[in-house]
Structure formats: structure tokens, C-alpha cells
Design brief:
Layout: H1 9-12, H2 21-28, H3 37-40, H4 43-50, H5 52-66, H6 72-75, H7 93-102, H8 105-108, H9 123-135
Helix pairs in contact: 4-5, 5-9
Length: 284
């Protein structure tokens, strides 16, 4: 079973770690790869997505423009332990001629990008060939780069018997409830309809009678209120002044739309004398 390597491009090129991400992204940025892929994505996946030639070409451009003062062995430490045939079989003819003119493979590792200018090849072409020699040993993984998933994972809940996934458990049907308690409540059991209710004192019966007031002297009319203190009471044998009665015209001072009523003492309140100053004024 093959284990996927987790080595990133910045592990092989340490200069990518201490450089500004904005400067690196200007050259190595690509829509096919996630942001900052050189330090977060496995190099095998990056090679399978963008390709070996594309990555080596972009690295050669970045090194020639940003790090042309550093030796190649500092930019790519794997050159110190990598052994290659001095004849450089399989390399382009222009590149082999340039390396031979610079002193061969052993001397090439100690040169900086600014020292690689030759008539047969540019520094970018030579650097690109050097990176292909090293990165070409890493197997490329052709699987697509997985997209970053957002959101939280779904929470699984135990399935109740008799229910289907994604539905609520059916509620048993019940009859009408009495009282203010919610259905299916076990705190207070429901009372049967036929059970007799306990008798409550004074429920449905007559209200307790108040004690009768002391009898007042003088005649009282049915339905009248108790006499008020300070109000003169009629004496037996004294003629009572009449009070107005509804429906009977009153002689004399009628000025409104309705006829004046004669004074007869047949109402609910006792008739008051003319000189009375109680609660109700005397009628003229």
C-alpha cells in the first residue's frame, strides 16, 4: 500500500516560507490550486493538478526575479545530495551546453541565478531544467484537489421504532381536555365526566342574609332605601307633598318638551318636603 507524501513545495524550497505571500502569489497563483498551495497542499497533488512543466517554469521565473543573489543549493537544498550523470542524458541540448560552459554540474550548484547567463540558454531555462531533475522524481497524483467543504457535519440521532427517517413520532389521539393543563400531562390526572364533584360551601345556594336593620319610626314605602341621617322624616298624620309621576301632565311650570309631572309620593324614594335640604332637591 502506497502512502501519500505530505511534503509541500515550501519544504523543498525554503525561500517560499520567509517570503511575502503576496509576492509569491503573483507568480505561483493559479485558479486550479487553492490559495497558498505551496505551503498547504501536498506536492504530489499540485503536480497532478498543474503539471510538472508549469510548476518548474513558474519557480524559475520567481527565482530569477526575487532571489537571483542566492546560490542554487540554498534555493533547492536537495541539490547537495542528488547525484546526476555528468553527461546529463535526456536534458535539452541548449541546457547541456550552458551547464558545460559554466563548469559542469558540481560547480552549477554553487552559482546564483545571476551567474547563469550564457549565450546558449537564459537563466530561467537552466533553472527550470534543474527543478525538473529534482521534482520529476516525485510521483504526481492525478486525483483532483478536493474542494473545501463548509458547514458543520450532520448530527445523527437514534431512530425511533415505528417512525421513518426525517419524520416526527405520531402523537396519540386524545379527547377534549378540561382545564388549563396541556394534553398528555401526567402531573394532574383527568377527572372522569361522570364522577360527582365535591360540594362547595355556599355554591349554588342562596347568599347569607344580612341582619335586619332596626325599625325606623314612621311609615316606609316598599322598595325604598333606608332613611339617611340628617334628613327630616315625615310624621304620622302630616300630609306629604306630592312628587312628579311619569306620564301625568303637571299643571303650571312646564317649559320643556315633556309635560311637567305632578308631585305624588309613589316612587322608590320617599317624598321630600318643600324646605328639605337633603340629597334630592324639592320639586317646584
Amino acid at each position: 500500500m502506497e502512502v501519500e507524501s505530505s511534503i509541500c513545495l515550501s519544504d523543498l524550497v525554503p525561500a517560499l516560507r520567509w517570503s511575502r505571500p503576496q509576492q509569491v502569489a503573483e507568480v505561483l497563483g493559479d485558479p486550479r490550486l487553492p490559495a497558498g498551495w505551496w505551503s498547504s497542499l501536498a506536492l504530489s497533488r499540485a503536480l497532478g493538478t498543474a503539471g510538472l512543466d508549469w510548476i518548474c517554469e513558474r519557480l524559475a521565473r520567481l527565482i530569477s526575479s526575487r532571489w537571483d543573489h542566492l546560490p542554487l543549493v540554498d534555493l533547492l537544498p536537495a541539490l547537495a545530495v542528488h547525484h546526476v550523470d555528468p553527461a546529463l542524458p535526456g536534458w535539452p541540448e541548449a541546457t547541456r551546453t550552458a551547464i558545460a560552459g559554466l563548469g559542469g554540474w558540481q560547480r552549477l550548484r554553487r552559482l546564483s541565478p545571476g551567474d547563469l547567463s550564457t549565450p546558449s540558454a537564459t537563466p530561467e531555462v537552466v533553472i527550470g531544467s534543474v527543478f525538473r531533475e529534482i521534482l520529476g522524481r516525485i510521483p504526481a497524483q492525478r486525483d483532483s484537489v478536493p474542494a473545501q467543504q463548509s458547514g458543520s457535519p450532520d448530527v445523527t440521532r437514534p431512530l425511533q421504532r415505528g417512525t421513518s427517517p426525517g419524520s416526527y413520532a405520531p402523537q396519540p389521539e386524545s379527547g377534549p381536555q378540561r382545564g388549563s393543563f396541556t394534553p398528555h400531562s401526567d402531573a394532574f390526572p383527568a377527572q372522569p365526566e361522570s364522577a360527582p364533584r365535591p360540594a362547595v360551601p355556599n355554591e349554588g345556594g342562596a347568599l347569607p342574609q344580612r341582619p335586619a336593620a332596626a325599625a325606623q319610626p314612621g311609615p316606609q314605602q316598599p322598595g325604598s332605601f333606608a332613611p339617611q341621617p340628617g334628613t327630616p322624616q315625615p310624621q304620622p298624620g302630616t300630609p306629604q307633598p306630592s312628587t312628579p309621576q311619569l306620564g301625568t301632565p303637571q299643571a303650571g311650570n312646564s317649559t320643556g318638551a315633556f309635560a311637567a309631572q305632578p308631585q305624588k309620593g309613589t316612587g322608590s324614594f320617599p317624598a321630600q318636603p318643600q324646605n328639605s335640604t337633603g340629597s334630592f332637591p324639592a320639586q317646584p
